Amino acid sequence: MTFLKNRLVWPVAMLALLLLCALIFSDGFFDIRIQDGHLFGTPINILRASAPLVLVAVGMTLVISTGGIDLSVGSVMAVSGAMACLIIGDLANQNSVGGVTLAVVAAIALSLVLGLWNGFLVAVLGIQPIIATLILMVAGRGLAQLITSGQIINVQSSPYKVIGTGFVLGLPVSVLIAVAVLVIAALLTRRTALGLLLESVGGSPVASRLAGIQARRLTIMVYVVSAACAGIAGLIYSSNVSSADGNNAGNLIELDAILAVVIGGTALTGGRFSLAGTALGAILIATLDTTAQAVGIPPETTLVFKAVVVVVLCLAQSPAFRARLFRRPAARPAARAEVPA
Amino acid sequence: MIDVSTTPATNKSGPAAGRRRTYRPNAQYIPVLATLTLLIVMYTLGAVNYENFTHPSVILNLFTDNAFLMVVAVGMTFVILTGGIDLSVGAVIALTSTVAATLLQAGWPAGVVIPTVLLVGGVLGLGMGAVIHFFKVEPFIATLAGMFLARGVALLIDQNSIPITNGFWTGLAEARIVFEPGVYISAMALVALAVVAVAAVVLAWSRFGRNVYAIGGNADSALLMGLPVGRTRIGVYTLSGFCAALGGLIYSITTTSGYAGHGTGTELDAIAAVVIGGVLLTGGSGYVLGTVLGVLVLGMINTIVNFQSLNSWWARMAIGVLLFAFIVLQRLVTRRAK
Amino acid sequence: MGEPPAVLEMTGIRKIFPGVVALDGVDFRLLPGEIHALMGENGAGKSTLIKVLTGVYGIDGGEIRLSGRDVRFTGPLQAQQAGVSTVYQEVNLCANLSVAENIFIGRQPRRFGRIRWAEMRRRSADLLARLDLDVDVTAPLNTYSLAVQQMVAIARAIDIDAKVLILDEPTSSLDASEVAQLFAIMRRLRDAGVAILFVSHFLDQIYEVADRITVLRNGALIGEYRTSELPQVELVGKMIGKELATLEQLESRPRDSTEQLERGEPLLRAEGLGREGAIAPFTLAIHAGEVVGLAGLLGSGRTELARLLFGADKADSGHIEMGGKPVAMRSPRAAMAHGIAFSSENRRTEGLIGELSVRENIILALQAARGWTRPIARRRQDDLVAKYIKALQIRPDNPEIPVRNLSGGNQQKVLLARWLITEPKLLIIDEPTRGIDVGAKAEIQRLVAELSTGGMAVLFVSAELEEVLRLSHKIEVLRDRRLVEELENTGDVDADRVMHIIASGATS
């Protein structure tokens, strides 16, 4: 598919450029060594750092493909981590695998409920997605702190710690989870008709309805999936630090996730989406942070850089901008760019 | 052709008689009245349950503590009335407080720093407005980029909190009208109230203000009615940038510091205040007075949480619940108007 | 009889949209103190002409002269300032603002930059009183009916000291007494010397108020006529046009009209089905293997009727029976489950998903019916799509290109293919041949005939009368949102007879 290549060409080029900079300016950036049978090194760190973002961005991609947006993902991460740590903290034996499994299941179940809530507001009450998910974005962190009674719950659970910091077959578990979710999402959307129907709803809700697509059900589903992804990301985050931090878990991740989706070539207006592009976008953002550190640029610069990336990509996507850039205004641009009936 | 289900959002109560007059309290006032009622109920609850709650300082402190938020929320009100959103305001607070502190540290006089800082905010807003209008980039994304940019530049200038020792600044921080010991209103609260007054007048009595409402009501119609849609739209983002910069100045004065971490999450508080104040998030309906009430409700929540010595998460939950209630209320009001 | 000099003269107006010539050298003039009707079917270029005149669109050729001076407005504001005011079909006011504000926004009376609200309210009330309208000018516009809103729009337009007043389908939401009220105002303004451009698809209204008529078709000028010298039938003929000659050269009539259909139990029966404001209750039976044609002008309710049968809009009266049993058409999905397919007239906005590929668009409805968990195997998709690309001669024949890159005719075929693979019992096609070239038209007509021969029932909606006559076993004639006549398409039914019914409502 040539168009897919075209769409991914910019993020790939940007990623290559970053890695090239890292190669030139930082010694041993690409060194991967095996220590205790585990892989270590900056590239592995980048992947580990990007795992939660990839997860959240995958869910966000599906939401955006239907023309929606989910601002609540960061809060859902916090809630999920809090729920898991609460249950583990109450376990008689924090190292019990069964107890940790229960905690993980409960956390994800709670995330699903939160997703259902978002979906209900958007699809049933018909509230604009950005507003509907704003509610949970604000209240969710309160909920997380309510669960943890406002304290940071520290847990000492080796099974739980595996999620964020463990290794299987030499690879970090968190990366494996992100890859697994990415693969499942890809299979789910591309091996079934889900992807097609989502793109159809995002492309034209009216035409989709007339083609007999149950847009409401699909819309609820994508918010549930998005919350589930955020829930898993929250577990990784909280496992990584062995605690639940309602304030900082997933702070501002919704913006990075949206950015990753846009960089990956999915338009905010919905329609065609690319999970591979999203994953690439998420890795690009994580690389940006890591490379900046490795090269010795103060990490704050990445914010300015992100701003530049957003502006460039959005302008490149804006038909109005391209029209102005490439066609000197011979004719005044039409006030409304639609062909009248 | 004619798809009846998509006719514009107008009152289609059948082709009834031409002079049908349905008289009921103006639906546009309902959310503001609801907010006012809520505020009174909260105050009464506080007064009944806690000692010292009725002390005048409780109310005056609401204004003092939330002066910067009030100014920012006023700018946000304009943006939201046109149906847009501005995510950059918190970052602009960070940027302006950092710039102000840095310049003051470098020995610039306050009389130069203040206009410079306000100009920075206004220009940033102007830029975002231009991108939104001319290139049809969604406000959400354009102001997100503005947010990254503003906070990024602030961090580039200085990552640490910069203390402000300038005499004018510290003087302003202490300036207040004292009614009796412990009962005072700060100069910054008066600045905020002045901004509110000016904004209310502009919205109600200027063509610019009315155009803001028209665009929020129906931008296509506004264009066909010959209103300057582009100028107005760019204007509101410029105004919001300006208000955020002023908010940043107030913040730097009350904290006598500039810091790139200032104002984190202020955009959410401002949006929440505007929504709770009864401004329709889709634009076209709402009042600055409502926003002020919204800010006061947020402040009152925090006050009660303090009095009850609850943790701050209760405040967040309460804000979330209120947001939900007001959004649903708005849905009901607009649906009934149809 | 001497004519005063024209207040507005448009000559050789050209307007091109990507891929479409919307106006092709159109001339139009308005005399002071006349009501001038602009007539034409969908896509004829009426709206474009109005938008060009009011500066919403720029022009690609021609000139506009107002009171003898060359003008080219860059926006509605300039047009208004020059004395050209417009009232649009969909009320283009801000419903959230008060009545008074809607009349004066952008030009409020001010003192020291401050809006004088009291003055504004007083002047609004005066103005509306002159239009015999007694409303509370401080109430938000959305508390009033659409009719009042329309009057307010007119009040705004005439207060701008208009030399030219454009009324673009202002009557589509008004009832008879409101229309009478509007006409009284129009006559009063005309007598005061205002030139009024009036667009309406209600013929009776045109003949009631218009002094002169200009007809457009397919973006070209057909002619300018005095209303008194143009019989209704001729007007309808000029609007609908006769591309028949070219079509008949392509092939003979796909159906022998004298051939009669063996009708058994109806496949579908609509009993008193209706929806307020869309179509008056009607009764209609469709049999297997039958082509039922819907004839009527734009706005006569033909699309509305089709949408009710498909469940795209909800009926507020009557019911539908299929195979003798009542069924509920709650949604398009329900209709599909009963074997009904609906190819919409707006293929770009209500039919195809532009950025999806031809293949994806073709399988969409079938896939939607199966649900997302039961995907159609890729090989089966490819086979089905290849089959229909071949059968319908869709060009280019690459199934993987985005459908928006196809020409109108080929897009239409893709939309038809989408529904044909669902193997419907009843296929509703709304204006499948609009805006496509003659060859593609003939192919689609032949396809419809073949499908019905194969036993499928087809409800065929078209603005082109000849096409309806060529294909249908039975013709349903609609007029003013009402089903007025059902004709068996036997040899003695011809275009003139149907046109008479459309024009007069009389069943001759």
From TrEMBL, chain A:
It comes from the Bacteria. The chain crosses the membrane at residues 46-64, 71-91, 97-117, 124-147, 167-188, 218-237, 249-268, 275-297, 303-321. It is a multi-pass membrane protein. It is found in: Cell membrane. It comes from Paractinoplanes deccanensis. It holds the Pfam family BPD_transp_2. Keywords: Cell membrane, Membrane, Transmembrane, Transmembrane helix. This is Sugar ABC transporter permease. Its main location: membrane. InterPro entries: ABC_transp_permease.
Automatic annotation (TrEMBL), chain B:
Residues 1-20 are annotated as: Disordered. It is a multi-pass membrane protein. Residues 1-13 have a biased composition (Polar residues). Keywords: Cell membrane, Membrane, Transmembrane, Transmembrane helix. The chain crosses the membrane at residues 29-46, 58-80, 87-106, 112-132, 139-157, 183-205, 234-253, 287-307, 313-333. The keyword Transmembrane applies. It holds the Pfam family BPD_transp_2. It is found in: Cell membrane. PANTHER family: ABC TRANSPORTER PERMEASE PROTEIN YPHD-RELATED-RELATED (PTHR32196), INNER MEMBRANE ABC TRANSPORTER PERMEASE PROTEIN YJFF (PTHR32196:SF63). This is Sugar ABC transporter permease. It comes from Paractinoplanes deccanensis.
Automatic annotation (TrEMBL), chain C:
GO terms for molecular function: ATP binding. Keywords: ATP-binding, Nucleotide-binding, Repeat, Transport. CDD domains: ABC_Carb_Monos_I (cd03216), ABC_Carb_Monos_II (cd03215). PROSITE patterns: ABC_TRANSPORTER_1, ABC_TRANSPORTER_2. Residues 8-243, 262-505 form the ABC transporter domain. InterPro entries: AAA+_ATPase (IPR003593), ABC_carbohydrate_import_ATPase (IPR050107), ABC_transporter-like_ATP-bd (IPR003439), ABC_transporter-like_CS (IPR017871), P-loop_NTPase (IPR027417). This is Sugar ABC transporter ATP-binding protein. Gene3D superfamilies: P-loop containing nucleotide triphosphate hydrolases. Pfam families: ABC_tran.
